[in-house]
Structure formats: C-alpha cells, structure tokens
Amino acid sequence: MISSAIIPQPLARLPWRLIFLVLCIAGIGLLTLYSAAGGSAQPWALKQALIILVFLGVAVGMSWIKESTIKALVFPIYGAIILMLLLTDAMGFVGKGAQRWLDIGFIRLQPSEFMKPAIVLVLARFYELLPAGSIRQWRAIWPAALMIGVPWALILVQPDLGTATMVLLSGITVMFLAGVPMWLFLGGAGLIAAALPIAFTMMHDYQRKRVLIFMDPESDPLGAGYHITQSKIAIGSGGIWGKGYLQGSQSHLDYLPEGHTDFVFATMVEEWGFIGGLVLILAFAFVVRWGMRVAANSRTRFGQLTAAGLTVTIFFYVTINLMMVMGLAPVVGVPLPLVSFGGSAVMTVMLCLGVLMSLERQQRTKSTLA
Amino acid sequence: MRVTPAHQSLAFSRRMLLVGSAQVGLGALLVGRLGYLGISQNDHYRLLSEDNRVQLIPVPPRRGWIIDRNGKPIAINRSSFRVDIIPQQLSDGPRVIRELAQILELSPDELQRVADELKSSRGFQPVSVAENVPYEKYAAIMVRLTELPGVAAARGFNRYYPDGPAVAHLVGYVGTASAKEYEKEKNPLLIIPGFKIGKEGLERSLETSLRGVPGGQRVELTARGKLVRELDPKPDRSGKTVQLTIDQGLQLYAARRMGDQSGALVAMDVATGDMLAYVSMPAYDPNSFSDGIGRTEWRMLSQDDHIPLLNKVTLGLYPSGSTIKPAMALAFLEQGIDPKRRVYCAGGYQIGNRYFRCDAVHGSMDMHSAVERSCNTYFWATGLIADPAKTTEMVHYLGYGEKFDLPVPSQRFGTMPNPDWLMQKYHRKWQGYDSANTSIGQGYVLINPMQLAVMPARLASGKLLKPRLLMAGPRQPAPDVAAKPEHLEIVRSAMAAVVNGSGTAVASKLPLDGIQMAGKTGTAQVFRLESRGHQGNWALRDHALFIAFAPADKPRYAIGCIIEHGGFGASAAAPIVRDTMTYLFDEQKAMDALLPLEQQWGGSLAERNARRSAAFEAAAKFVQSQAQAKAPQPPTT
C-alpha cells in the first residue's frame, strides 16, 4: 500500500493500515498490562509483547498463502480439530475435571480456539460448494447445522460456555450471510425468546441465582456478583479522563479481579477514562471495518463468506468481552483479544487476520496475475 | 424462482449491510454504556472506588468532661496504658503471646479471649490485650517492643470519677458497647478496643455531647487488607465539656453525711431551680464499673439490701408522709379555711367506722401548731371539710407526682391521687378515708426524692421552679405560684416553727448565727400502723423524710431527703439535712460535724467501701474453696 522506491515491494504491499491498528491495540494492551503488574514489565507485559510479535509474524506470513491452498486445507483442518476436541473431552472425562488443554509435549494446545476460525472456513467452503439454487433447500441447512452443532456441543461439555457461544454465533452469521432463508433466523430467534422463560423455570436454583445476579450484580456484591460489581466500579470511577496512568486504585489494590486477563478493559478505562475506552473501541471498529471491506471486495463466494465470518468472529470476541466487563452480559470468560494477557486469544485473532490479509492481498494482485 | 450466483451476490451484499448495521448498533451500545458508567454515573462509582481504597483506623475521641457549677471535675479522663496486638504485624504469634502473658500476668481466661479475638480480627484492627496496665509493666513492654513484633503499647484514656460513689447515680458510668448497642448504631467506633460509651445516668443521656468525633488514620488497603500506605490522618474532636448545676463539694458532703444509710438527698437553689446536690446512697463505684466490674463486686452490690444499684433520686418511690402537710395547709388556706380554726386532737379521729390514731394527744390545734407538731387529727378533720379535688390539685401543682424535664435516662414520678384518678384506676368514688390518708401523705401518695426538694423550693420562693441539671440549659423565669402571698407566709412560718419553735425537728436547728432553717418532718409507713415507731427489723422500719429551706426568712436553698427505714423523720433525715444545709453556709462547721460521725462509723466513705468489698471477697473465696473442696477437681484445660 505504501508506494516508495526505497521500500522493497513485498514490504510495501503489506496492509500497513491494519498492522498499524493492530500494533496500536496491542500497545494499549501492553501499557495496561505494565500498569496491572504494578508498573512492571514482569510478569505479563514482556511476555505478551513476545506473543504478539510472534503471532503477528505468523499472520503476515499467512498473507502469502493462496486462497486455493486454504480451500484445500479447510476440511482436513476442521476434521483434525474435531478429533482434538474429542481427545480433549475424553481426557477431561478420564481426569474427572474441566479440560480445555491438550498437552502435546512441548506445547499446550487449546483446540477450541482453533475452532473459531475453522468453523467460519468450513462453512464458507460448504456454501461455496453448494449449488446456488439449493440455498433455499433443506440440504443447505442440516450439514451446516451439524458442522456447527458438533464442535459447539464438544466445547460446551468442556465446559467453556464463552467459546461455545462464539463458535455458534460465528457459524450462524456465516449461514446468514450465505443466504439461508431469513425465516429460519427470525423463527429461531422467536423460538429462543419464547423458550427462555420456560428454561428459567426448569433451571436449578443455583443457575437461576446466576441469571438473577447477572441481572442485578449488586444484589450479591461479595459473591458471584463481585467481579462485575468491581469491574463497573473501575470503569465508572475513571470518569472522562481517567485516574491517570498507574493510578488505578481498583486494579492496583486488587479490588478488580482478573484485571490483567478478562477484565483488562476495566483496568485500562480506570486509568485512561472514557476517552481511553473510546479510542480502544474505535481501533477495534476500524479493524472490523477493514475486515468487512475485505469481505465486500471479495470476488469469490469463499472469499466473501470467509472474510465476513472471520471479521464477525473478531467482532464477537471484542463485543462479548466488553459487554461482560460493563455488565451487559453474564461473565462467560471471554478475553479481550490483543489486550488481555494470554496467548490463545492473540493466536485466534492473528489466524483470522492472517487469512483476511491473504484474501486482501489476492484482491489486489488478482488483476495483475489474471 | 431459481437462485443464480448473481442473486447470491446481491443477497450477500444485502445481508452484509444488515450485519454491518448490527455491528454499528452494538458498537454504539458499547460506547453508550461506557459513557453512562464513566460520565453519567461517575460520581457514584468514584465514591464506591474511594470506599474500597481508603479505610479509616479510627482514633477514639476523648470523652468530654463533666464539671460542677464551679468548674470542679465530676467526670474526667485519666491517662492509662494499654497493650494491643495488631494482627497483621504479628509474627511468631504463640511466642509473642506467651511473653506478653508473662509480663502482664494474664490469666488463662484472658489469654483465651485474646486468642479468640485474634482469630476473628480483620488484620489491621487492633486487638486489645490488656487495659489499665501499670506503668512498670507498660515500660517493661516498651523496652522489649522490638522483640515483640505486632505488639503495640499505647497511652489511652480512662474515665475517672474523683468522687466515686458520691456521684454514681448522678453521672452513671461508661462501658464497652454491647452487641445490641452496636447493632442499633452501626458505628465502627463502638467496636474499637477500649472505647466506652455512657451506660447509665448523665453519661448515657448526654452521650451525644460527650462522645466527640473520632479522628483516624486513613490508610490505603488492598482487597486482602494489606496496608499499602498511610494517608493524611483525620484529626479527632474531643467531646464537649458539660457543666452541671451540681455543687461538687455539697454533693460529696451529702453523700458522706448519709453514712451507711440507704436514701436520697436533693438540694436546690431556690432562686433558679438549679440542683445543687443529687445524691442516692449507698452507691457503686462508677470507676470500677467503667473498667468492667468484677464478678465479686457485682454480686456484692446486687445482694445488698440497701440496693446500691438503684438510683433512688428518680427511681425510688415513697409515701410522702407528713411532708405533704405544708402543701395541704396551703390548699386549705386557698379554699378559704381560716388558719385560726381549731381542731381538738384527742389522740385520734373517727371516720366512718374506722378510728385513725394520731401520734400523740395534741389537744387544741390550729393550722400553725398542726404543721409545727405534725398533728394528723387536724389534717384528717380539715381534709374532710375541704374539696378533695382542689386539695389534691394544689399538692400536685406544688410538685408531688410531677414529672420533670431532666436529662436522666428514666424517671418514675409517682402518684398524687385525686377523685378522677381514683375513679379511672380503681372505679370507685373518693371517700372520707381517702381524704384522710392523702392529708397525711399516705394511701396512694407516692413521690420521688426530687419532688421532695421541689416542694419546699416552691413554697419558699413562691415561684413555680423547675429543677435544672445542666448549666447550659434554658433558664426560664419561673411563674409565681398561684396562691396568695400571705397564705404562703403562713405556711412558711409554720415550717420555721417546726425547726425553731416547739416542733418535731427542734433538734435539727442550724448551728449558725442569724440563719434559721424551716422544714417539715415526715415518716412514711412501710408496714402496718400498729407496728410503727421503733422496729427491730430494719426492713420493716418506717422511712424517714425531711424537707427544708433556709434561711427561713429569705430562702436561698431547699433540700429534700429520705432515709429508707430510718424511723422518724426527725431523728434520721432532719440531722442530715441540717448538716448539709450548714455546709451551704459554713463548710468548716459542717465538716466539723461530719468527721466525728465518720470516725464513729469506721472511716471515710472510701475506706468503708474498701473494707466492705474486701470482706465480701474473702467471704466469696471461702464459699468457693468450700465448694471446690467438696466437688471433684475440674480437669485443667
């Protein structure tokens, strides 16, 4: 994108605007992690910087992969992830406990994370293969439902409600964009709305309590509502300009739990205020807009659906986390990608961005190749 | 319709628009929520955040003093030494506590309490180990402080009542707040070790003035209670000093003069209604109550038949006896009864089918001589020709059965019966014998010792005085008593004759030149009429009462006194009033009268108290050792 005689062609052709946005977001995240550690690069900021650089490198590297290569790999990868999920669940069953990790010696893999982009890819591939005329037919629906339902169920039993929900939402969005009849979605939404009260009456007491606490976290400020209450205090006490960098009392005095992972946004907003939060949200909005443009400009059906689906995955990642920390959604354990400490979310988002960059590169270069 | 790839592309664009709009909508929701929390609700959340961050380790305020009308101390604070443990800084707990126990000579009970409190403490809140530590032990801890991490030895303040029991029922005492009191107020100050609140008397009713405002060390704490740093301290504000109308010297004198007898004495300034003395004896020592009373002392006090735990001034109710007669006389005069009217006393009086016996055969009596010599027959006979409603109303008007607006936690104000009251309460009509009983202060008449002082004060001044206890209280000019001044003069001269003429209290003349006391004796029946007079059994003897004012010609002070089971008013109560009154005019002369009496009783009030509690303790120990010798030894824990 940057045209200059000095900069070599391959470098100049990178989507610098996106990379700049990603570095911006990651920078805010690293500053926040530095503050959350009490003004220290250890134990989080430094490690996180390394993770981001590595995965950004991976993403940039992925941008040279051709669309045809991706297409060819989609089903094998999806199958492999399903297998890994099965293995994880099985080990969790044997170990009689929650199991999200698959330890393969040198690295611990979280297969459910891979499923987030994979579900988008496999559905995009499926709808590409589906003849255009069949889209309003039953065979446009059940294979897709199965492809979403199996990993969803496997992840849900881990149990990981946050990831399961994201896989479900991403998958449904791809189905929606592929043109599956509208009545299916409206009817589904209506059905869920109707079923909620019934589900509520069938719930166990402790589950019902959780729902009620989500509705009114202050009713149990020291128990299950503690996280959300403290998070809202951190965000609300920041005001317009925040308390100042390294001055956040909620995070520094440990009142805000998980201030470096799921609730990192609260840590950030406490110190940078409404303005800081707005900047971060806008940065994410630009990333999403970039991704949606890639989708709109795609000339292949696979490209369209993949780009839109992966962008929506990133969007859900950010939105569910922000709704959670601001008390608009129950606490489901979804981190804020690129900002929260931890490698999984960074990896997922970078994989998504890598595929998006590859699609974007081909949009620009196709004309010259063709 | 067949769907073609072109259709599909169009559908994708349309649905992209929908998804994009949804994204914008959700983004707007997020920004809106962020703005709502951070801008619109900022004040609310900033407050919550500060509540989280800053904790106050309260420094209790010093309690306000209570002083007498001349500024002499009645309740003050004495510095004392205390030892606390700050759980958070405590390391090697068992060793530290063992050493503390050795230095402070703590009992196993106390050690257990410290251990329990340490277990339930909040980390930065100190746990009290010992209060009122003697200076030597305090110093011993201070030099070893570096070896005792977590131990804090500090100077604190203790309530001190210089006059001890003499002011016990006036000021009450202070003590640690109970769980119930904490529940009611929810003030964290109440649970600071060593903090005391007023439990009785003025200490309780003046709590809001005396307490002051706590200061505190503001500290920043983490969610786990770890101290991060100390912020600027908030200074405490001492409680206000409260000045009473009491004369400390007089109060102490009256208390001492009452000796070991059970009773109450109230003195009033006739010009203002200021209460100069407010004594109920015997009394507990508020100093030992404020430190937390020992079990032995408590048992001693609660088993005493002189009920030292009862404030007799406002809670003791007694028949007024003949002290009602001056008021009765005024009531008769106001109804137009001629003071010269004579009644012949043949030693008793027949009403209906009952014969009421007088104390003596007084012969022909007019009003003056009937008051002077306390002839019941005159009052029975005259009471019968007077209107009982008007008579009782006048007596009530002069103070008997009246409730006063005083800062004391509770008041029992007794009964001044009248025909309406009798109908309401007992559903019967007022009879001749009711008039007769009321005329001599028996029957339903019940008064408290405060009223016993208000009555002579009102008769002496001709003003409807209200008793006052606080110097700062409103000082309203008292209205005149609604009675003819010459009638009041007749009553006053009769009362002067009681002491100075040939009356019942001639033995209690003031030993002062030119100052005469006027008074009236009273003897209140405790048991049946037949057993009146000298009784061997103390608890069956009559109550002795005396009301007085002085100087008789130009009244300045009024005193009311009751001695429970003192026998005749003239013999038990009047001499005490005489000496107390003397004190108001000539302190030296009064002291000269007191000292030989105290010698005879076996030492001063403090000495006798100490001796009695030592005896009681010895007796208690004896009983305990007897019980232990019989019972099998309990296993040591």
TrEMBL record, chain A:
Pfam families: FTSW_RODA_SPOVE. The chain crosses the membrane at residues 18-37, 49-66, 72-94, 114-134, 140-157, 169-200, 272-290, 302-326, 338-359. Keywords: Cell inner membrane, Cell membrane, Cell shape, Cell wall biogenesis/degradation, Glycosyltransferase, Membrane, Peptidoglycan synthesis, Transferase, Transmembrane, Transmembrane helix. It is found in: Cell inner membrane; Membrane. It comes from the Bacteria. Pathway: Cell wall biogenesis; peptidoglycan biosynthesis. The keyword Phosphoprotein does not apply. It is an enzyme of class 2 (transferase). Its main location: membrane. It is a multi-pass membrane protein. It catalyses: [GlcNAc-(1->4)-Mur2Ac(oyl-L-Ala-gamma-D-Glu-L-Lys-D-Ala-D-Ala)](n)-di-trans,octa-cis-undecaprenyl diphosphate + beta-D-GlcNAc-(1->4)-Mur2Ac(oyl-L-Ala-gamma-D-Glu-L-Lys-D-Ala-D-Ala)-di-trans,octa-cis-undecaprenyl diphosphate = [GlcNAc-(1->4)-Mur2Ac(oyl-L-Ala-gamma-D-Glu-L-Lys-D-Ala-D-Ala)](n+1)-di-trans,octa-cis-undecaprenyl diphosphate + di-trans,octa-cis-undecaprenyl diphosphate + H(+). Its EC number is 2.4.99.28. Belongs to the SEDS family. MrdB/RodA subfamily. Peptidoglycan polymerase that is essential for cell wall elongation. This is Peptidoglycan glycosyltransferase MrdB. It comes from Sphingomonas alba. The lineage of its organism: Bacteria, Pseudomonadati, Pseudomonadota, Alphaproteobacteria, Sphingomonadales. The gene is rodA.
TrEMBL record, chain B:
GO terms for molecular function: serine-type D-Ala-D-Ala carboxypeptidase activity. It is an enzyme of class 3 (hydrolase). The keyword Membrane applies. Residues 59-231 form the Penicillin-binding protein dimerisation domain. It holds the Pfam family Transpeptidase. It comes from Sphingomonas alba. Residues 263-581 form the Penicillin-binding protein transpeptidase domain. InterPro entries: Beta-lactam/transpept (IPR050515), Beta-lactam/transpept-like (IPR012338), PBP_dimer (IPR005311), PBP_dimer_sf (IPR036138), PCN-bd_Tpept (IPR001460), Penicillin-binding_protein_2 (IPR017790). NCBIfam families: pbp2_mrdA. It is found in: Cell membrane; Membrane. This is Penicillin-binding protein 2. SUPFAM superfamilies: beta-lactamase/transpeptidase-like, Penicillin binding protein dimerisation domain. Gene3D superfamilies: DD-peptidase/beta-lactamase superfamily (3.40.710.10), Penicillin-binding protein 2a (Domain 2) (3.90.1310.10). Its EC number is 3.4.16.4. The keyword Membrane applies. Its main location: membrane. Keywords: Carboxypeptidase, Cell inner membrane, Cell membrane, Cell shape, Cell wall biogenesis/degradation, Hydrolase, Membrane, Peptidoglycan synthesis, Protease, Transmembrane, Transmembrane helix. It is a single-pass membrane protein.
